[in-house]
Amino acid sequence: MAKKVEAERRSRAPKGHFVVYVGSKMTRFVVPLSYLRNPIFQQLLNKAEDEYGFDNQNRLVLPCDESTFQRLALFLAKR
C-alpha cells in the first residue's frame, strides 16, 4: 500500500518501492513497484505523461488529488 511521507523525513524510497507526488500540495507517497503492473495505475501514468510530459524536475507527478490517489492505493493493495 502507498504510504504518505512527511516532508521532513524525505529520503530514498526503500528497495522495491518508488516515489510519486500527488495533488496541489505535491504530497509525497512511497508506492510498491508492483503497482506498475496494474492497468489502472498504467493509465494514470499515461495521463501524467500527457499532462506533464517528461520534463518535471525529476519527480513523478500524478494528475489526481490526494484523496483519489489514496482510494486507488487502497484498491491496488487489496489485489
Automatic annotation (TrEMBL):
<dbReference type="GO" id="GO:0009733">
    <property type="term" value="P:response to auxin"/>
</dbReference>
<dbReference type="InterPro" id="IPR003676">
    <property type="entry name" value="SAUR_fam"/>
</dbReference>
<protein>
    <recommendedName>
        <fullName>Small auxin up regulated protein</fullName>
    </recommendedName>
</protein>
<comment type="similarity">
    <text>Belongs to the ARG7 family.</text>
</comment>
<dbReference type="Pfam" id="PF02519">
    <property type="entry name" value="Auxin_inducible"/>
</dbReference>
